[in-house]
Specification:
Blueprint lengths: L3 E12 L2 E12 L3 E5 L6 H9 L6 E6 L2 E2 L5 H6 L2 E3 L12 H10 L13 H11 L15 H13 L5 E5 L10 H13 L3 E5 L3 H5 L4 E6 L2 E6 L1 H6 L1 H8 L23
Parallel strand pairs: 3-8, 3-9, 6-7, 7-8
Antiparallel strand pairs: 1-2, 1-4, 4-5, 9-10
Helix pairs in contact: 3-4, 3-5, 4-5
This protein binds adenosine-5'-triphosphate.
């Protein structure tokens, strides 16, 4: 890997007796997409929150571009280029799509990969173009279908000009015909040089994009590396994939369901 953009080392977190991260370490390079999988309650969202700075780890370090950001809060990390999407998008329903994205753009610090540094409007519009939302720019966000709500969530964080994008289940609930649009979007962001960490239960969508895959279980990394090697790893099959994947013949689970049994 080239110089890592993000280095997470020895992260630990527990809530009372529940261990959600135990000595978790991983790296992500600029322009690399890392997939994050694992059974429900494995600690994936907790890890994203620790990287984003919305949750403080009990131990370990988070380093971005060689600078230790472990003690920085979420706003300061956002200023340095870390952006996080949420599993359940909650746009300001009374505002249009464009206005919602403009709110994100107005938080952009000096990291402006996506547009002119001093022009939040241009940056918001660029985020709409990249996410394919210009045609619904003036639509009230409260009336959007699920796919567009998901795309708006990505546009909102993209408008902040991130170097590292943390995506939380943006494919969940989409139909088979909608999924390729999300896959193309994440691939484009990655190809534009943004580093991506993507939590996703819809494995075939994830495997279409990610360069590496990491599987968590019980707060521990049980496998990371080449995506197809990871999903074939006996431990991953046992604790996460169960019988949904024929690892001998099928490199990716079928599109109908996720390993957690949700409909993709
Ligand atoms: N604020 C909190 N207080 C107490 N327990 C918590 C808190 N946040 C998370 N947990 C617990 O930590 C564990 C890991 O949760 P987390 O949401 O990180 O898992 P996950 O892998 O993202 O799961 P899912 O795939 O279901 O979203 C769970 O047992 C959860 O109940």
């Amino acid at each position: 890997m080239s110089d890592p953009l993000l280095e997470v080392t020895g992260v630990a977190k527990r809530f009372g007796r529940v261990v959600t991260a135990r000595d978790v370490s991983f790296e992500v390079a600029a322009g690399e997409a890392l997939g994050l999988v694992g059974p429900n309650g494995a600690g994936k969202t907790t890890l994203l929150d620790i990287v984003a700075g919305t949750l403080r780890a009990d131990a370990g370090t988070v380093v971005l571009e060689g600078r230790d950001v472990t003690r920085l809060g979420a706003a300061a990390r956002a200023d340095r280029g870390i952006a996080r999407s949420y599993q359940v998008p909650r746009p300001f329903g009374g505002l249009t799509v464009y206005e919602n994205v403009l709110v994100g753009a107005s938080f952009a610090g000096r990291h402006t990969r996506t547009g002119p540094a001093d022009d939040a409007r241009a940056q918001a519009w660029h985020a709409l173009e990249v996410t394919g939302m210009t045609e619904v720019a003036n639509t009230p966000s409260g009336s959007l279908r699920l796919l567009d709500r998901k795309r708006l969530e990505v546009a909102r964080v993209l408008a902040t000009g991130p170097r590292l994008l943390l995506l939380d289940e943006i494919a969940g609930g989409l139909t088979d015909s909608e999924l390729p649009q999300v896959v193309r979007l994440v691939r484009r962001l990655r190809d534009d040089g943004v580093a991506v960490v993507w939590i996703e239960h819809v494995l075939h969508a994830l495997l279409d994009v990610v360069d590496r895959l990491m599987c968590l279980a019980g707060g521990e990394v049980i496998a990371q590396g080449d995506p197809h090697a990871v999903i074939r790893s006996p431990e991953v099959v046992e604790v996460y994939l169960g019988s949904t994947v024929d690892t001998a013949t099928d490199p990716a689970p079928g599109p109908a369901t996720t390993p957690t049994g949700e409909t993709a």
